[in-house]
Amino acid sequence: MRKYNALINNELIDNGQWLEIMNPTTLEIAGKVSALSAKDIDNAFKYARLSQEAWEAKHLLDRINILKKFKDLIVENKNEIAQIMTEEIAKSLKDSLNEVERTIEIIDYTFEEAKRIDPHSQTGEGMGAKNKIGVFSRVAKGVILAISPFNYPFNLAFAKIIPALVMGNTVVFKPATAGSLVGAFISKLVIKANLPKGIFNIVTGRGREIGDIITANKEIDMISFTGSVNIGNQIRKNGSTTDLVLELGGKDPALVLDDLNLEKYAEEIISGAFSYSGQRCTAIKRVLTTNQIADKLLPILKQKIEKLTVGSPFDNCDITPVIDEKSANYILGLIDNAKQNGAKIITGYKSEKNLIWPTLIDNVSIKMRVAWEEPFGPVLPIIRLNSIDEMIKISNESEFGLQASIFCQDISTAINTAKKIKTGTININSKSQRGPDSFPFLGIKNSGEGVQGIRESLLSMTRYRGIVLNY
Ligand code: NAP
Ligand code: G3P
């Protein structure tokens, strides 16, 4: 049985309280992590604050060199990290390893990009200022709270932690409960890499028990959160700080505007909708198209979806169990609701505990919940509409605004449609996706606040400091 400790000031915490972590594939206990108390959490922030000035005072290249030792340990342990992820979140072994490798690339790129966050100078002459030069540098915000979700426990943790640390902030990191084994496994690597005490603290425990205590701590200068809209909104209300970056849910539409390359469109749509069993913020969560196109697209989608393998993440199946039985019930509830209201199930709609077969639903109407809610599971609704304008309207009526896809060979139509879609990013002729990770990544409306991405995170985790010379 895996048993990993939280980390405060480079000390492994054993307060005698443990939180059990489920294996979604076997529905047995995969391991335990520390369940921290309010006092432990206070200590984590106390040490993060105490260590911050000295860490920031180090030269950028010294900070990078220190962090490189930690990155090297991630590289050494990448197979073990992937194995733990597969055990606790049922992501296929292949995809878990991809996630770790993708994160290592992000870390390397962050080290390089940080070197380009140079100060700039201004004279103010255009405003009539005389004999002045202002030098404006980016300096650390202070103590950053990083909270990650279950679905990318490694990637979304380090896409926050590394830019924060590189720029001289210190970090308190709260992993999702499903994802805490990976989170707490890192504790030993922090110690082994000999990172300066207190700069990187890992606090574990159930969000509903300690979440409010964590986010209300007075030492926090910024919160970087990825997760659901509900918890994001709770943090907006409860957070002790006004500096927030939130990456929240999505209901990404795929608008299919022509039938000129349906094989390719279907491949992208299926990969977008069903990778990691649909548990991606950027998953394609509804297809909007016309009757005519739907009639041709549907048989292609059906045939390809029925070829997806369903089963264990250790066998690298395409569709694996969703995170828990509560999520499975929610997903099945959305399908039931569509079926009861006249939608047609084309394939799937079979389940065993939390393993749900990939489900394609046709004739979904805008009165059905699955047209608007985020299932976070292997479900693809098709909504038949009359025109591109109607597709744009239904896309934009969503509470979410993360990403969208447009499938269309005529580039002018595609771009003109993209300009009318209200989401952070619009992908033409590809599934919705965050990557490459150097791109700015943002959600509007209920999908988030602020911008992530490598350069954008380095910027959001710093503030300007101007020093003005008068001569
Ligand atoms: P979640 O339930 O909102 O949890 C996210 C994190 O918040 C977890 O670490 C959770 O800890 C913690 N938490 C729970 N209650 C809290 C509280 N009161 N205060 C502070 N933190 C609290 O989300 P999830 O189920 O892990 O992830 C799925 C959601 O994330 C989906 O909606 C998905 O779209 C979204 N997501 C968005 C992006 C993006 O980039 N836009 C990327 C990935 C995922 P516990 O696990 O211990 O409860
Ligand atoms: O960074 C991981 C998550 O935010 C989305 O990534 O590649 O599934 O679009 P992806």
TrEMBL record:
Gene3D superfamilies: Aldehyde Dehydrogenase, Chain A, domain 1, Aldehyde Dehydrogenase, Chain A, domain 2. PROSITE patterns: ALDEHYDE_DEHYDR_CYS (PS00070), ALDEHYDE_DEHYDR_GLU (PS00687). GO terms for molecular function: lactaldehyde dehydrogenase (NAD+) activity. Coiled coil: none annotated. Residues 19-465 form the Aldehyde dehydrogenase domain. InterPro entries: Ald_DH/histidinol_DH, Ald_DH_C, Ald_DH_CS_CYS, Ald_DH_CS_GLU, Ald_DH_N, Aldehyde_DH_dom, ALDH-related_metabolic_enz. The active site is at E247. Keywords: NADP, Oxidoreductase. Belongs to the aldehyde dehydrogenase family. This is Glyceraldehyde-3-phosphate dehydrogenase. It comes from Spiroplasma taiwanense CT-1.
